[in-house]
Amino acid sequence: MGSASNRTPRAVAVNVLKGGFGKSTTGINLARELAERNGQALLVDLDDNGHTTFNLGYRDRYEGENHVQDVLLNGADPQNYIVSVTDGLDLFPSHEALEEVETNLKSAMASSQRLSRNVVDPLLGDVYDYIVVDTPANRGKINDNALFATKNLIVPLRPESGWESGITQTNKRLIQEARQYFELELLALVPTDLSERLDQSTRDRNLLRAINSRKELEPYVPNFAHLSESDWEAIDTNEYDGDLPGIRHRGSIDKAHRARKPLRDFDSECDQLKCYEELAQIVEQGRVVR
């Protein structure tokens, strides 16, 4: 458990302007570890694909009353729509009509401040010490709301073609634009779903090499994905004996989704839980600590 005396309530968005990069998996398991360590956390699903909501077993909420509209546009109490996932972890579900919410936000007063005013501000610190927001993979008012409300960002990256454009667009079209209007902190870049060798020219190697060698990216690489130059030398001479870096592909992670559970509740012995634990620490600390 985290130390209550050292705890600063914090909200964070899991965001990258590219679909299929593991936002939902990252958000679910980060929020679960924050709840495990601190006693209470809220996961807010604002992605229109609803994967987070489906993967936690609440498809009925996705297809029912448009509670997101009621809360963001009409000021309804979000606690009326929050559901329990497991001890300490709650969910504000997504909804199939988020496109309608997006459209209506464009003409609303203080349109980028609704999530902050109606959800995060009243709940953060009083009801939940940590709030994690899963976001859409495209620019828009819902994404603007997520960034303004949390002011902290975690970016998941998968080792596939397009990861570089994903982070470039996220930096240019989200982070840099947002910083013209409010403080926004990048907390971590998270390589996820890795499965290939590193001693050959694979996508895993290319991704890890790039983020660890670029001065502007390396400070945001979690320790579980951090490789020094001496580590790379050891990898290339078959002398590396450390843990394989990044969040590795595991059947348990996929099976947990099908079982409608976070990873910890499906397989508490999975070796990748330590990565999500470190992500929780990064959110608690507000940065990567070497």
Task: Give a written overview of the molecule.
It is a single chain. By secondary structure, this protein is of the alpha/beta class. The protein has one domain (4-285): P-loop containing nucleotide triphosphate hydrolases (Rossmann fold, 3-Layer(aba) Sandwich). The protein has 13 helices and 8 strands. It has helices at residues 23-38, 51-55, 59-63, 67-72, 98-105, 114-123, 141-150, 163-178, 203-213, 229-236, 251-258, 263-266, 273-285, and strands at residues 10-14, 41-45, 83-86, 89-92, 130-134, 152-157, 185-194, 247-248. Strands 3-4-2-5-1-6-7-8 form an 8-stranded mixed beta sheet, sandwiched between helices. Strand 3 and strand 4 (89-92) form a beta hairpin. Helix 1 (23-38) crosses helix 13 (273-285) and helix 6 (114-123) packs parallel to helix 7 (141-150). It is globular and about 60 Å long. It starts with 9 loop residues before the first strand and ends in a 5-residue tail after the last helix. The mean pLDDT is 94. It holds the Pfam family AAA_31. Residues 11-173 form the AAA domain. This is ParA family protein.
